[in-house]
Inverse folding.
């Protein structure tokens, strides 16, 4: 039996991880932790998990806890991760994994040295359409990649974002919260970002409840990728905002990823998790193509793709990947190293915006 503890027991834990681990054989969420007693009480009541604590150090002392998911405000990711790996616990960390690249690299090195499995919760890698898109790009279906673009547009208006709108707690706003996933899309599909120029905006200094915000509402990056296949440069454009009025929240908001190449183009959106738009050179315009059934579920996952809402249930496969890597003593995909690579891009974007110039992204290996 692999015992898992949730450190941070809010919405992400309840919506994604609790049902995900429930599908994993011989796995049980044995403990909940949250610094907010009300959040902890709600999670315990909803899940029936009676072992709770407001102190993560108490959770890490437990012999029945083999692994932890860290779903706290961003500034706590590094200290909790370092404490967890020192205690010999496997770790999955929500994105962004750290407040800066030095923290992220410290987490990676410590986890490797401790010999534990480590994972970044880049959830959208597990969407069936993204998995199929990655397969097609990597087998050369679009030829030489030319362009990558990703957009995440939502309408949250002026609602209070809690700790996510406070720089000392989150590090960055829309970039870390939403664009980090799209940075990982690019790394997965094309290769590492080698240089970039970024722009940020904060349109709302005060949100609901007279709550101050000191972080970005909108972010855009123009990037140059290094193709993993032949090292050639690939252009990239990434943009994300929660102020795209009328777009809606969550699943209703636009989440688009497109790659154009010498032989074709592929476009993907989470709103259609079992479908891609594909066009070929000298062929018809982009056409809807269903994702083959073999890509509906992450390999080995016991999840039934015909049950539940496909806009949400793909998320459970990341928990299976974590547990399967622990059982088979192999690297998780995506690992904390993938999280550190995204952090290198985000740090470079912050530097670019501050100095109003192109910036080279550090190599992370």
């Amino acid at each position: 039996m692999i015992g898992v503890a949730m450190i941070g027991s809010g919405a992400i834990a309840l919506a994604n991880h609790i049902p995900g681990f429930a599908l994993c054989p011989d796995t049980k969420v044995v403990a909940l932790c949250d610094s907010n007693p009300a959040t902890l009480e709600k999670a315990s009541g909803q899940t029936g998990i009676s072992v709770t604590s407001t102190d993560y150090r108490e959770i890490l002392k437990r012999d029945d806890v083999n692994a932890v998911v860290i779903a706290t405000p961003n500034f706590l990711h590094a200290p909790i991760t370092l404490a967890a790996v020192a205690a010999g616990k496997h770790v999955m960390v929500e994105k962004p994994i750290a407040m800066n690249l030095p923290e992220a690299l410290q987490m990676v090195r410590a986890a490797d040295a401790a010999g534990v499995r480590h994972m970044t919760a880049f959830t959208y890698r597990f969407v069936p359409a993204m998995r199929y898109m990655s397969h097609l790009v990597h087998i050369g279906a679009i030829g030489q990649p030319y362009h990558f673009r990703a957009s995440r547009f939502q309408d949250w208006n002026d609602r209070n974002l809690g700790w996510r709108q406070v720089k000392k707690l989150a590090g960055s706003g829309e970039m870390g919260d939403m664009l980090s996933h799209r940075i990982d899309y690019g790394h997965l599909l094309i290769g590492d970002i080698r240089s970039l120029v970024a722009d940020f905006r904060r349109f709302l200094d005060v949100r609901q409840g007279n709550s101050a915000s000191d972080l970005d509402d909108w972010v855009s990056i123009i990037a140059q990728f290094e193709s993993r296949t032949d090292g050639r440069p690939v252009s990239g454009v990434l943009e994300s905002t929660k102020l795209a009025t009328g777009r809606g929240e969550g699943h209703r908001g636009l989440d688009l990823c497109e790659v154009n190449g010498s032989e074709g183009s592929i476009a993907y959106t989470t709103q259609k998790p079992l479908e891609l738009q594909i066009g070929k050179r000298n062929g018809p315009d982009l056409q809807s193509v269903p994702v083959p059934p073999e890509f509906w579920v992450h390999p080995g996952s016991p999840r039934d793709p015909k049950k539940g809402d496909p806009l949400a249930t793909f998320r459970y496969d990341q928990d299976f990947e974590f547990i399967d890597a622990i059982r088979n003593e192999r690297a998780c995909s995506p690992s904390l190293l993938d999280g550190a690579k995204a952090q290198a891009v985000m740090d470079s974007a912050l530097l670019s915006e501050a100095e109003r110039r192109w910036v080279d992204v550090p190599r992370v290996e």
